[in-house]
Design brief:
The chain has 11 helices and no strands. The protein is an all-alpha fold. The chain has a domain at 3-135: Hypothetical protein af1432. The chain is globular, with a radius of gyration of 16 Å. The mean pLDDT is 95. The chain binds fe (ii) ion (2 copies). One fe (ii) ion (FE2) is lined by residues 21, 25, 51-52, 129, 204.
């Protein structure tokens, strides 16, 4: 399927608002790829477009598909099954869209929580999902600005925002997000002065 056909195919699995978000993430991922990894432009578009293809499934469906396909369900995912929409979405890429690119699958899996050691395509998508034009949380403009200059700082900021956000909401901390945050800090990545404490990231 070419990209236009995939855009239409995705309508089978998304409502209007999520379809628009998917197109925005595709554009944001393409913009980040052009700046930071031009060789990943095509997979960045694909991953951006399709990252939330499983988001409409309810908790029960996510848990049953993850169990059926032996995707592994952590204790945190068990208590908050919406976290599974990344790995379930990745598992559905081939039957829904005929896509079986392991890097695109990994990026779709990783976009929800991030993961230490995740690859460049995953990093692009992780940031693009939060920079997309439909995002409006406090600090999104600063994130967009940082993402244009330094992808690693943007990865750190997204992980930090997600941790602050789940703690503020009283949710569990997902270990991969904490480990990614630690990895960035231990690698010496620092946020620019003036990044204030804002939480309240939109989820998705
Ligand atoms: Fe998502
Ligand atoms: Fe998303």
């Amino acid at each position: 399927m070419d990209l236009e056909a995939l855009v239409e195919q995705l309508r089978l699995y998304t409502g209007t608002r999520r379809h628009a978000h998917s197109l925005n993430v595709m554009r944001a991922a393409a913009e980040l790829a052009r700046r930071h990894a031009p060789h990943l432009l095509d997979p960045a578009r694909l991953a951006g477009l399709l990252h939330d293809n499983a988001k409409r499934l309810d908790d029960e469906q996510l848990l049953s598909i993850a169990a059926e396909r032996q995707l592994g369900i952590s204790a945190v995912e068990r208590s908050q099954p919406s976290l599974l929409h990344g790995k379930v979405g990745a598992a559905l890429l081939s039957e829904r869209f005929g896509i079986s690119d392991p890097e695109v699958e990994a990026a779709v899996t990783d976009h929800v929580t991030g993961r230490p050691g995740m690859g460049l395509l995953s990093r692009l998508l992780y940031v693009a999902d939060q920079c997309a034009a439909d995002r409006s949380f406090p600090g999104v403009e600063l994130l967009r600005e940082i993402s244009r200059g330094d992808l690693e700082q943007a990865v750190l900021l997204v992980a930090r925002n997600k941790l602050l956000s789940v703690i503020q909401r009283g949710y569990l901390v997902e270990p991969n997000t904490a480990a990614l945050y630690n990895e960035q800090v231990m690698a010496g990545v620092q946020l620019p002065a003036g990044v204030s404490d804002f939480g309240g990231l939109e989820q998705g």
